[in-house]
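User: I'll paste a sequence; please echo it back and then give the predicted structure.

Assistant: Echoing your sequence first, then the prediction.
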Amino acid sequence: MTTVPDEASDATFFTLDSVTSELMEVDAMFKACMNWNYGHRDSRVWSLYEKNKVSQWNATTDIDWDYDVNFGADLTEENGAKLATFVIGEGSPVPRELLTDFRWEYQAWMCSQFLHGEQGALVTTARLVETVPDIDAKTYAASQVADEARHVEAFAKYIDEKLGVTYPINPGLKTLLRDLLSESRWDIVYLGMQVVVEGLAITALRLASSSFGDPIVRQITRLVSQDEARHIAFGVTALNGMYSDVTSAELRERDDFLLEAIRLMSRRFMLAEIWERMELDVDLGMHFARHNPMMAAYRQMLFQQIIHLLRQLGMLSDRVKDLLLAENLVRPEILKKLT
């Protein structure tokens, strides 16, 4: 590792070439926007900003880090044995003797994806501070950046110090983040992050807080999900009514984006990384993940929030509905009730 000494202090600085293997760099062209109209501070977005200010928590002091997490240890009914019950049953690629191992790997995979997603939210929301046109949205987005930094801190500390096991970013999530970071239209960044990514995350976090095995990760997921609820409200408030006045070509572009985002996020939950790491039959695992009724029900539960948000925004198009049905992300009778 190359270092450059600072003659004015004892500090050591590391050159960028020491971390390039860990970087995802995305070239982007976008407009930074400043607005000299500071508004009346009485908007819905400003109210969310006020709530954000009083709802801060400290990942270092507000979480009890004393609990010892023994990765791979036997799990009790009260401590993680109810996690991932979908993997028990006919057609499962996981032998019963590896069930505990799978549950630990699944928890490590989920927490790793939470961490990667939170960093994605950190960077894309920072982009919104530059690109959104009104000052209220800039101010709230800045407060969300602080939230996302805290989320990254909490999950990284948990993985590094407690689990000791990490997974790389899921390819579907990586592709979506790359798309968002190269996107110049701020409303599409809202759609991708605040609606799709955060919409999935809030449900996954709430499920994790009730099923993960140890009190530390349950505390983290509960606190993070509270923040995510405000982030989603910010995105929906900012986009409310926007798509009633756009051209058909602009609407089609947003629709195309949503179709790709939904495809990527649906296939994220095929768990290929876990099957591979456990040296199980990956093809069998992928088939099981796609067709197992409990896993299908889990994905449908995750996508409920996204469907609700798209309906609110007037973006639940026929094409989106057809894709949701084709990917088995919603039951036909549920979708019929919404339209």
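The chain has twelve helices and two strands. Confidence is low (pLDDT under 50) at residues 1-20.
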